[in-house]
């Protein structure tokens, strides 16, 4: 029965996964949905008409002010759990305090007569955040306390809030004594720190360390490299500063700089000719130590990177290389220290203007010195990147073209099929309305055939996308191919000769027998249509063992043992251009209306989902051969072939039916009743678990795979804990990642794919009931 507008509104509000309260200007509750009733343990009948202060005496002042602001100005407010931990006294289904966010906003135009209060349960996410924060804090303190560098946490005013033990040692005082002081009071030179502080405070990260000077406890100067970063917490920002003592390095660098300057002067005096090449070269030339310290560079360094000579001598190449490339440079320097063979490599270097240049180097070690020549290849790399982006854009355009072709084909075919269904139903409605009942069977047949064509199209799409549900198991390939002889002969007609050539050595392969028959039939139909004037069609089988070298050029193929089914025709053949497109969905060479273009796409998807592949060869005027490779299998063991015949009908046995789609649930329940079974209906896993644990006599469970919340496979695991021998039948329209039956089905489990014929469902139920009765009789 259709719902009235009021009933529909109440149903929608009660169906929301969140609390909904509507109050009027007097503060009285007008709406109190089912979710808030469950969370407060107070039904709507008790709360509607009462005021919120009467229902919740401990409401915080911020809630009242937010409600008043909404009525006065229409302003919306959000009371988060982090600032307002307990706005309302709510409980989860488990009875635990509920962490929640509350929003308040006015309804309708001014003057606002009602306000909406919405409540969202964030208990799970809040608990995860709390646990994660505690773990992060523990790791943070462990790292900070063990660090050799001084680490300080400052607030927005520059006041120290946290100091590690290394900071206390650096400044000669206890960590607690540093808390409350400002970093600027601890430094000798404050100008560099103040500039860095203003930058970090404004949200601009430091691109390189800042050098500052402090005083040691003994009065000696301490040279420090300072890095700082800003972070936020609960609406406030803080700055973490790391100070590294580089006094010893500074002294060593000064000494090395003096030595390097002396060495450079001596080299310059003896190499006047080399100096001319040095100065005029357009490539960067570097002479340095094998640890990367620069002794000298030519002017090309300044022209390309912008750094002057005084910035380079005594510095280390690592200081100019991007962090991502520094490990590579260290490897090169280590290799040059061990051997004199030239090294060719590329590095990204920082330019003085803030840019990055890509330099290709040729380096060699001679006389315990690094001698390197670098060529700027930035423009070449940028051109390569531009080409890569262009190629990516082309691939994206091709992908969108394929999507357009796919959706266009689907829309065309489905619209044709829907026209048959809708048109037939409309005609039947008109005839029933006018009392004309003759010839209704014809229109019923039209609607049924169109619907079956739509179902077949869906299966072909699933096969192409490798998402159909397959019942893969060992299949005797020669026996299956031989059983199709009569069907294939009738399909081909009298003008085409059919040959079946099965290699006697071919045994078992792994496949879904029904889908394999459909794939062979598709190939035979395509071959028939390629021989309009008659010809010869051969279906053959053989064994194949593919080695790794044989499949190297075929990405979808894998090495291993296969059985091969080949369909060869003497038809018109295909050009290389057509051959490259045959597996694309909705691509067809047939006239409009004579083919969907999904036949070979379905075969390709079926083969790939069966862990096999398809090979095709063709030449214009010489025919086509399509080979279907399927994994070889061992003969199956003993089966339940000796089971008695399926029961003709039920005798009141109870069947638990779990289906979230109401129309499917009603249909299956009616089928069960027609067959003489008693259906126990439920729409979700929790309701099914209640029935399974109730002790009721249940002979079979029928469950949808894609249930909301706990899916059908998970429900089956729970069912087996309660009833280990319960047979379970899965119904699926699309099982996502669980389409492989071997991954879904356990002992005494079967699967049917929607849509299904009533007779198919009835036969499967009767078969499983008979098997269960047989097993019970064996015990």
UniProtKB/TrEMBL annotation:
Keywords: ATP-binding, Kinase, Nucleotide-binding, Phosphoprotein, Transferase, Two-component regulatory system. It catalyses: ATP + protein L-histidine = ADP + protein N-phospho-L-histidine. Residues 409-634 form the Histidine kinase domain. It is an enzyme of class 2 (transferase). This is histidine kinase. GO terms for biological process: regulation of DNA-templated transcription. SUPFAM superfamilies: ATPase domain of HSP90 chaperone/DNA topoisomerase II/histidine kinase, CheY-like, Homodimeric domain of signal transducing histidine kinase, PYP-like sensor domain (PAS domain). Residues 654-769 form the Response regulatory domain. Residues 136-188, 291-340 form the PAS domain. Pfam families: HATPase_c, HisKA, PAS, PAS_4, Response_reg. It comes from Ancylobacter rudongensis. Its EC number is 2.7.13.3. The keyword Ribonucleoprotein does not apply. CDD domains: HisKA, PAS. PROSITE patterns: HIS_KIN, PAC, PAS, RESPONSE_REGULATORY. One of its GO terms (molecular function) is phosphorelay sensor kinase activity. Residues 208-258 form the PAC domain. Gene3D superfamilies: 1.10.287.130, 3.40.50.2300, Histidine kinase-like ATPase, C-terminal domain, PAS domain. The keyword Signal does not apply. The modification 4-aspartylphosphate is found at residue 704. InterPro entries: CheY-like_superfamily, HATPase_C_sf, HATPase_dom, His_kinase_dom, HisK_dim/P_dom, HisK_dim/P_sf, PAS, PAS-assoc_C.
